[in-house]
Design a protein that fits this description.
The longest helix has 16 residues, at 184-199. The two termini are 26 Å apart. The chain has an eight-stranded mixed sheet with strand order 2-1-3-4-12-11-10-6, with helices on both faces. Strands 5-9 form a two-stranded antiparallel sheet. Strands 7-8 form a two-stranded antiparallel sheet. The chain is of the alpha/beta class. It has a single domain, classed as Rossmann fold. A hairpin with a 2-residue loop joins β7 (125-126) and β8 (129-130). It has helices at 21-25, 39-43, 56-61, 63-71, 184-199; strands spanning 6-10, 29-33, 47-50, 75-78, 94-95, 106-108, 125-126, 129-130, 136-137, 145-150, 155-162, 168-172.
C-alpha cells in the first residue's frame, strides 16, 4: 500500500487539526505522533511539517533522517522557534527586542504560493491584538530569501531556502499558520497549501 507522501509530526493529545482532515482523507498526508516516529516513517516521505509544539530535543535524535529527506530533494515546513539545530543551516531563534506595535506590521517582500490570496493584514493580528503571528525570527542561512518581514527592522519571520545539497526549507518563525490571523477561511486554507507545497505541487 502506497503511503501518503507528506508527514505531519504531532506532539499532543487528540487527532490532527480539522483543517488537515481533507488532506488525510485524500491520501496526501499522514500524521504521526512524534514519540512513535521511526526511521522508516521518513524514508519515503516527500515532505514534512513540523508544528510549533514539536519536541526539538527528540528531533535531534532523528537529525540524520531529516537531513536525508532534504538531500534527496524533499521539503520541510518549519512552524516553530528553532531552539535546537535539528537541521543544519538555520540559526537559533532570536526574539524581537522590546517591540512596539509598529514593529509587528507585516510586509511581504516576495510572493509565495503558500500566502497566495492571503493579505498580510489577515495575518498580523488576531482581533486587533498583535504578537500571535510571531515575535522574532529563525536566522536565515546563506542563500535563503525572506518572504515576509516585521516592521522597519525587516525581521524575517517567513523565509524560503533552497539548499545547495538539495531540498527546500520553508520557515515560519511563529505560531502554526493554520491557527493565526483574522480570517477563518484564510487560516483553514493554510493547511492544504502547506501539504501541497511539501508534495512539490507549488
Amino acid at each position: 500500500m502506497t503511503r501518503a507522501p507528506v508527514v505531519l509530526l504531532h506532539n499532543g493529545d487528540g487527532g490532527v487539526a480539522s483543517s488537515f482532515e481533507p488532506s488525510v482523507a485524500a491520501g496526501d498526508l499522514r500524521w504521526l505522533r512524534q514519540s512513535d516516529v521511526t526511521e522508516d516513517d521518513l524514508a519515503d516521505a516527500k515532505g514534512l511539517i513540523l508544528p510549533l509544539a514539536v519536541d526539538q530535543i527528540a528531533l535531534m535524535d532523528i537529525k540524520p533522517q531529516l537531513e536525508a529527506l532534504l538531500d534527496r530533494g524533499g521539503r520541510i515546513a518549519i512552524m516553530c522557534h528553532m531552539l535546537r539545530p535539528f537541521i543544519d543551516g538555520p540559526g537559533i531563534f532570536v526574539p524581537m527586542e522590546k517591540p512596539k506595535r509598529p514593529d509587528f506590521n507585516l510586509f511581504r517582500l516576495r510572493e509565495h504560493a503558500i500566502f497566495a490570496d492571503v493579505p498580510t493584514e489577515a495575518l498580523e493580528s488576531n482581533k486587533g491584538v498583535v504578537g500571535f503571528y510571531g515575535r522574532g525570527h529563525n536566522p536565515m542561512p546563506e542563500g535563503a530569501e525572506a518572504i515576509q518581514v516585521f516592521g522597519e527592522r525587516q525581521v524575517p519571520v517567513d523565509w524560503i531556502w533552497e539548499r545547495p545539497k538539495g531540498g527546500v526549507v520553508f520557515n515560519h518563525s511563529g505560531n502554526d499558520l493554520w491557527v493565526v490571523g483574522n480570517q477563518p477561511d484564510a487560516r483553514k486554507a493554510m493547511a492544504p497549501k502547506l501539504v501541497a507545497w511539501c508534495k512539490g505541487e507549488m
